[in-house]
Design goal:
The chain is α/β, with parallel strands linked by helices. The chain is built from 14 helices and eleven strands. It comes from Phaeobacter gallaeciensis.
């Protein structure tokens, strides 16, 4: 986990806001820590930072980077981070039940026609017959933690195929990649910039698409502490406005491709500061472009998908049957889609 900060007021630049803003920002140098993973799917925050959208809202942002969703949720609950993007997990719901966290919007989504998350097999498993998700019976499916988004995806895929799989918690994405490469686990599902990069290098095999099993899946959400959601409305709305402008720019450049070739290249170079930063641009560019999935406009939240995820967690005994979406979500900030 590490941090990265940038200060100083930058001029307001283009992009549609989730919420109206008139005149000067109401906040001034409001310090804020934003949790993130070094994934293309977190690009809206990176764009908002680099293009001055946070600064224009009066927000002095510092990033804190994590290697899995659940530790990020704990950081929000403890006050070590103020806002973040993460998948819905059993841990996040449990923290919401304790009054510690609230989902305030949606981020990454599976969308028909957009190349999304991939289902992967290790080379060893593929050679032994795991050439499609239908052959997952009895295989080891990698997850970070029990109740994570990886667990949810694996369960939905297995249910659709009518097979039983074994889940292997490995805590961190890096550990999963190493285990998949070495054949210690058989299968996994992950965002395309990682999946295609691994497959292109010959380290794994792509055997399916998550969207075929979970259409319109709300992959990640925007969330904060329950205290921020309830008591820091101006700051929370300012964060969402800046985040939404970053999402608009990202979608235009790499998803809808309406920003032109130069706009797409500029966006890839911006994201490269955070994603695959340890690789030369020439080696990182293709993977970043491959990772472009829709980030919801105005942080809209797909409540049908949220309800499905909560229902699965209840069926697995991961959360209490009494928990409703109201426990997890504050619907007053972003539109429901």
């Amino acid at each position: 986990m590490n941090t990265f900060t940038r200060r100083g007021a930058l001029g307001l630049v283009g992009g549609a806001a989730a919420l109206p803003m008139l005149g000067s920002p109401a906040l001034a140098n409001e310090k804020m820590t934003v949790g993130a993973l070094r994934f293309t799917s977190h690009a809206a925050s990176f764009v908002a930072f680099e293009r001055g959208y946070f600064a224009a809202e009066g927000l002095d942002v510092e990033f804190k980077f994590f290697q899995a969703a659940q530790p990020m949720a704990v950081a929000i609950a403890s006050g070590d981070a103020d806002y973040a993007v993460t998948a819905i997990s059993g841990g996040l719901v449990s923290l919401a039940e304790k009054g510690a966290t609230k989902v305030i919007g949606g981020a990454l989504s599976e969308e028909k026609g957009i190349d999304g998350q991939k289902i992967l097999a290790s080379n060893a498993a593929f050679e032994a017959g795991l050439t499609s998700p239908a052959a997952l019976a009895g295989k080891n499916f990698a997850v970070t933690q029990v109740g994570s988004s990886f667990h949810y995806m694996g369960a939905k895929i297995a249910e659709a195929e009518g097979v039983a799989v074994k889940y292997k918690p490995l805590q961190k994405v890096g550990a999963i990649i190493g285990a998949l490469k070495s054949g210690q686990v058989d299968a996994w599902s992950i965002v395309p910039h990682i999946a295609k990069g691994l497959a292109g290098a010959g380290a794994v095999q792509i055997i399916g698409n998550v969207a075929d099993y979970i259409p319109n899946y709300q992959v990640t959400t925007v969330f904060t502490s329950a205290a921020n959601a309830a008591n820091e409305r101006a700051k929370t709305e300012a964060f969402l406005r800046a985040f939404s402008k970053g999402a608009d720019d990202f979608n235009a450049a790499l998803v809808d491709k309406t920003a032109g070739d130069d706009g797409a290249t500029e966006m890839v170079k911006l994201i490269h500061k955070y994603v695959y930063a340890d690789r030369p641009y020439e080696k990182a560019e293709k993977s970043i472009r491959n990772g472009a999935m829709r980030i919801n406009k105005n942080a809209g939240l797909n409540m049908e998908s949220v309800q499905d995820q909560l229902g699965w967690m209840k069926s697995e005994g991961l959360i209490k049957d009494s928990i409703t979406s109201d426990v997890l979500v504050d619907p007053s900030y972003a539109p429901v889609i």
